[in-house]
User: What shape does this take?
Amino acid sequence: MTEIDYYELLEVTKNSDKSTIKKAYRKMAMKYHPDKNPDDHEAEEKFKAVNEAYQVLSDDEKRQLYDRYGKAGLEGHGQRGGGFSGGGFDDLGSIFEEMFSNSGFGGFGGSSRGRERKTYNYNLDVAVELEIEFNEAIFGCKKEVKYSYKDACSDCKGTGAKDGKLSTCSHCGGQGQVHMRQGFMTFAQTCPHCNGSGQAATTKCKTCNATGYKIKKDKFDVTIPEGVNDGNRIRVSNKGNIAPDGTRGDLYLQIKVNEDSHYVRHDDDIYFEVPIFFTQVALGASIKIPGLRGELELNIPIGTKDKEQFKFDGEGVKSVQGYGKGDLIVQIKINYPKVVNNEQKELLEKLKDSFGVESKPHESNFEGMFEKVKKWFS
Assistant: This one.
């Protein structure tokens, strides 16, 4: 599923201040509020999304994490998409006042006049997948990124129209919206012919084949921070698509971490299996195991059980958000001999006999059970 960019959702730029973001939020919340869009599931989802976006972008710490790592960076910060547990709730009262102090329910969505409209039809931000190895994610690394981006066609100024000449869209009359009537209600939606710009090409631009852009390629080196995990996003400023006015979006690196054949990662904890022989359980043992950063000593007490786990505090992955390190957790796997020779069998028999009745725990455990079961059927 494509992740919705919070800035695009609120129709603001990444360098917008809090005041601008708040105004944009109030405008979008008014537009999609359920009371103004009854029985409109899409509007309801949009309303939840803009509240989620505002909760993040109005909070300095959350916004910083989001800018660098995307939504994955917000995990553990109380972010539950779509709720009202943030700055958004405090602003709802004044938003309601604005909504209902206007001309009742007559003004659905507001007028688009006077609003600066986008003449190009592509997003400025770009997302590419960056594949890294397991150890590179844990310890950080430098990687070369090769990717393509869109640069506005200079001949048509990104419009897709010859010489940049646009005319009023005949389908929406330049409003950028078309209206649908259902019963006594009228609903507005973005004009599919001009994508809400209200303008259409008179003659298509031949230079870019009416796309409004040219595809260019680039490459650069990027530093991957220690502790990054599969699914994290890293923002690289001013490496995205370019608008006709020269404004450039950001590049988002979607991290894909390859699995390791021995270690398994869960959040910042590392798990792996340690095979031991059954005699090591019977006698107890101390063995060397490979930690992420060198050898560790594992003490195996007598009587250790199969699948029992032992934890090494702070020997896991360093948190990419700066919250310390996870743990290294090893799980025991007890191995038994598949075949024994005559000499080994004789030694095992002697060992068993040396334990006496202790080597036959089932006899004492089942004592009296046979007679009890017989009585059930007598």
Notes: Residues 78-116 have pLDDT under 50 and may be disordered. The chain has four domains: 1-110, 112-165+202-258, 264-336, 347-378. Residues 347-378 form one domain.
